[in-house]
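Marked as duplicate of an earlier ticket. Keeping the data here for the record.
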Amino acid sequence: MKKQVFSFYEALGEDAAAESARFNLYFPEGYDMLSMDAETEADFVSENPRINRALLHAIFAGQMMSRHAQKRLISAKHSEAFGHFAQSELGTLKQEQVFLALLNTQLELISWEVVFVGTLTEVSASPREIFQRALHKNAYAMIIAHNHPSGKVQPSAADRLFTRRLHELGQLLACPCWMLSL
């Protein structure tokens, strides 16, 4: 990140060496920018208010974009690999959530998003909103992933009924649908 910070200051006509050195005093190598406290942020911004505020916004935007960027197309053709991906995304959540994985005709992930957030023990989901998103993104198929914070991965009776409804609707709309409980 040092090189990008230097280039940022240089592009704005600032003394890039001095400003980069100041940046490194506040944020040494390995500093987690997302855990910055308000006091550190205020102190750093006060050194060069307009420029440093812009730099922090750029860094946060870049980190958020890289966090949510699609690293590579994940294929649902290999259920074990997709299961590991879904487990890494949902495995530590403290409340039940429903995620939607939209797939292209090669069964590659084109979208992964939270569609419903519930409580510690339940989540309410709407087939209409799920299919609306799938149709909007022109998805060929979808996988619904749902976590159980309790660790019990067996689907409940309500999960099975919901899955059956989604499967039937998917058949009618020519958009296959599978359910994954984690």
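See parent ticket for discussion. The chain has seven helices and four strands.
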